């Protein structure tokens, strides 16, 4: 288990909420601490959205609670009915994520009923809002982690592991069951990459120049993720159709190994070029172009598929799946190459993500 920034931010927000509530002399500062827990978010943009939603939730909970107490009292059945009404309102206003805070506000206000009820409700409302504000302040002061660095690091590590398994599979150096387990882990890591991409996407740039660069980078990172997914598809299908690959002719097996080796080396070259680890030279690009003979690869594979008998129709379909995955992988790399070249041309001074050797 890793101790992330969000854990420390939550603790600091609780302390701040309790301190401010105690400083103002509010009777139950613990409710401010509870509200602060609900409002901690990983990005500044999400913190802003959460603050708006929690403000609305707090108001809805308070209004429903005050209305029900004044009209019907605070019997436990009335509290339950008020909670149902509050939930219905929250769902109608599409504030599902803030239902918990609205119910907390509702219950702490409906706790008592006396002649000073309005004053009591106002104090409880203020206490909860202090917790929400404390969490928002902590989110602003303690800047979120560099999601771009984490995103590129995850893409790079998953790509390395995927290409490593593909190389081993091409040379029959893998165990079927071990690889199958690792494929599942890679799929989970790809889901985590998608979540990091959303975090990075939500980060806001202030300067117009930075906004343009950010938009180009978002397209570029999306293509990086897609290229890694295409390599994952190749690995998954090679593991699934291992038997069909083992029955290919030696010439076709060698062609497949050479073609995929060239594509994978090109993929690694593109990632290193993006972070400035290698230079983009005409000679280097020509090496990859000469190494990859797409026409020969396609002609050999299609000839193998056409030569199959009716009894081998299923095997031919499986080979067709592998062929389409490999070709799609190559097309994604070509597009990624164009995007990196374009980005380097129009944003040469843009800060590149830090390269992390270890996760």
List the helices and strands and how they pair.
Layout: H1 5-23, H2 30-39, H3 44-72, H4 76-92, H5 99-109, H6 117-141, H7 147-170, H8 176-202, H9 208-240, H10 242-246, H11 250-274, H12 282-291, H13 294-306, H14 313-346
Organism: Bacillus aerolatus
Protein name: Aromatic acid exporter family protein
Membrane topology: Multi-pass membrane protein
What does this structure look like?
- This protein is mainly α and 359 residues long.
- The chain is built from 14 helices and no strands.
- It has helices spanning 5-23, 30-39, 44-72, 76-92, 99-109, 117-141, 147-170, 176-202, 208-240, 242-246, 250-274, 282-291, 294-306, 313-346.
- Helix 2 (30-39) packs across helix 6 (117-141) and helix 7 (147-170) runs antiparallel to helix 11.
- It starts with a helix and ends in a 13-residue tail after the last helix.
- The mean pLDDT is 83.
- The chain crosses the membrane at residues 12-39, 59-92, 123-143.
- It is a multi-pass membrane protein.
- It comes from Bacillus aerolatus.
């Amino acid at each position: 288990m890793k101790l992330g920034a969000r854990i420390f931010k939550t603790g600091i927000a609780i302390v701040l909420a309790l301190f401010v509530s105690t400083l103002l002399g509010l009777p139950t500062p613990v409710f401010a601490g509870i509200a602060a827990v609900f409002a901690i978010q990983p990005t500044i943009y999400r913190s802003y959205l959460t603050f708006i939603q929690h403000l609305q939730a707090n108001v809805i909970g308070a209004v429903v609670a005050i209305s029900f107490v004044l009209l019907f009292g605070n019997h436990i059945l009335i509290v339950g009915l008020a909670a149902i009404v509050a939930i219905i309102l929250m769902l109608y206003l599409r504030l599902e994520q803030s239902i918990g805070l609205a119910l907390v506000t509702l219950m702490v206000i409906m706790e008592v009923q006396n002649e000073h009820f309005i004053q009591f409700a106002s104090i409880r409302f203020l206490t909860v809002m202090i917790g929400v504000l404390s969490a928002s302040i902590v989110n602003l002061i303690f800047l979120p982690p560099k999601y771009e660095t984490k995103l590129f690091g995850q893409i790079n590590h998953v790509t390395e592991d995927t290409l490593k398994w593909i190389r081993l599979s091409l040379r029959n150096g893998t165990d079927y069951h071990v690889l199958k387990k690792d494929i599942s882990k890679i799929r989970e890591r790809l889901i985590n990459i998608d979540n990091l991409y959303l975090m990075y996407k939500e980060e806001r740039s202030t300067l117009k120049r930075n906004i343009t660069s950010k938009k180009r980078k978002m397209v570029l990172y999306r293509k990086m993720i897609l290229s890694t997914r295409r390599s994952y598809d190749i690995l998954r299908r090679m593991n699934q159709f291992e038997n069909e690959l083992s029955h290919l002719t030696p010439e076709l097996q060698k062609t497949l190994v050479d073609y995929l080796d060239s594509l994978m080396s090109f993929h690694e070259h593109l990632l290193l070029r993006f972070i400035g680890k290698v230079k983009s030279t005409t000679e280097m690009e020509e090496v990859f172009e000469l190494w990859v003979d797409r026409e020969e690869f396609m002609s050999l594979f299609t000839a193998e598929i056409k030569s199959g008998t009716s009894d081998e129709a299923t095997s031919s379909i499986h080979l067709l799946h592998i062929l389409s995955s490999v070709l799609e992988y190559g097309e994604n790399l070509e597009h990624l190459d164009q995007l990196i070249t374009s980005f380097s041309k129009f944003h040469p001074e843009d800060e590149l993500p830090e390269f992390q050797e270890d996760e």
